[in-house]
Amino acid sequence: MMGPSLTFALFILFIAITLIITFWARANTRGADDYYAGGRAFSGVQNGLALAGDYMSAASFLGIAGIIALSGYDGFLYSIGFLVAWLLTLLLVELMRNAGRFTMADVLSYRVRRQPRVRTAAVASTVTVSVFYLLAQMVGAGALVSLLLGLSTDTAKIVTIVAVGAMMIVYVMFGGMKGTTWVQIIKAVLLMGGTTVLTVLVLARFGFNLSDMLGAAARNSGHAGYLQPGGRFGKEIAGDPLRTLFNKLDFISLALALVLGTAGLPHIVSRFFTVPDARAARTSVNWAIGLVGVFYLMTLALGFGATALVGQKAIAAQDPAGNTAALQLARALGGDVLLAFTGAVAFATILAVVSGLVLASSTSLAHDYFGHVLMLGRPRESQEVAVARFSSCVIGLLAIGLAVIARHQNVAFLVALAFAMAASANLPAIVLSLFWRRFNSAGVVAGIYGGLGASVVLVLFSPVVSGKVDPVTRQSLSLLPAGVDFHVFPLENPGLVSIPFGFLCAVLGALLSDEKVDPERYQELSVRSLTGTGSHRASVRRRRTT
């Protein structure tokens, strides 16, 4: 009884601390600038910690460790993909931070004539990507609490998902960006500390000899190719060259989504608006890269260590998707005490990340759609903030419902789908807006809707939704039950098709439109994005339409 009781006590302690921070932030939030961007008062180091906290999600801590534990070498490719993604992010986010004010739509609409269309498209993309990302965090919460409190029923997971959803709604409605950022900072410190403790302890079991740990993991995995590529991606299937080809293409598709998707994630973009200047933004990236890099290296020890000490069968028996591998490792290393601490850290991770995602979505709905489309760019700040708070409640309820449906999926896998959508819909519009003089509002709208639509449709008709069955147990590995099969797209991740399609739609939309571009506005955007001159002024350009 000590384990669940201690775990529950730590959960309550973290929730109490974060609620105090949330209501402190509510008392110190005066307007839209405070609610959306924390008053732009955070330092580069503080924002770097918060940014790393945003990025090191439940998919990183629980999902990647589980995929490595179950898939071996191929599972670690998730860690590599998430880490390499920061190279592109470093290139783009500072430019976007200088050009925008609160949201991605501020950047995309800066130089175009038909702003309402652009902002509406950006809102649709922001909400869709954020909701898919939210699913992963909340699914992870269900698996986490079920293990820690000794609850194995579906009802327990559903109750946990609902509870986490309610907490994130409270954080965003009352705390805004100030409260969310401080929660992220605390969570980042806890997560790095907890992961470091687990890594040191698991390596100590093998005399800090990585080779010994990998050897033990291979023996406990149950199959000879555990430490070789091809266990999960690019698997060779005898007598079926077409299926073999699709397996290899699926790996390429996943890699593209992970590497290109980060720069298009709405909650990552909005975090850079919380710092006062471009120098602080660069400092944020540098700190985040260092923390994220060390963290993803440690996921190797978590995943392989779990297989070495717990065993693949025990991991799969607890959760077939592997989401509890890191927690089972903690129990094997330090008993109920370390399990309770690790669980509390994971719970903090989930609550912090979902709050950032909901805030990004509600900000986009309030600032972009309500403020600039419905109110024609002339709302009162109090109205915008009220709409943002209401929107956070609606988005939270939607995410809760979808997470209940997807509660059996691996959380890292769900995040990969969100990354594919971000790369397909947002990245083409961002890159071409910043670097192509001929680009216009028609291109932005076509690129966003084309990339987003393609990724959603391809996922709907992929093995993710129907048709994927375990060859041994005959149980469904898709969202829908076994026997339901309407998949026609063979890849599980749509990025290989949807990302080029998004760029193609954006280019064709711009070229086929007769909309005139404003060269002065493009030049102004270029100077502003590169130098930061004039960024984040209180007054914004009056809406221009044709």
What does this structure look like?
The chain is mainly alpha-helical and 546 residues long. It has 19 helices and no strands. The chain has helices at 2-27, 32-37, 44-55, 58-71, 73-99, 104-108, 115-148, 154-205, 210-221, 241-261, 266-271, 278-309, 312-318, 325-374, 381-405, 411-435, 441-460, 495-512, 519-531. Helix 4 crosses helix 16 (411-435), helix 7 (115-148) runs antiparallel to helix 14 and helix 14 (325-374) packs antiparallel against helix 15. The protein is globular. The N and C termini lie far apart (68 Å). The model is unreliable at 537-546 (pLDDT under 50).
Helicity level: over 70%
Strand content: under 5%
Count of individual helical segments: 19
- Main β sheet profile: none
Tally of extended strands?
A: 0
**Roughly how many Å apart are the termini?**
68 Å
**Helices and strands, in N-to-C order?**
HHHHHHHHHHHHHHHHHHH
**Shape, please?**
globular
Average pLDDT works out at: 82
Detail the poorly predicted runs. Answer: 537-546
**Over all CA atoms, what is the radius of gyration?**
23 Å
Structural class: mainly alpha
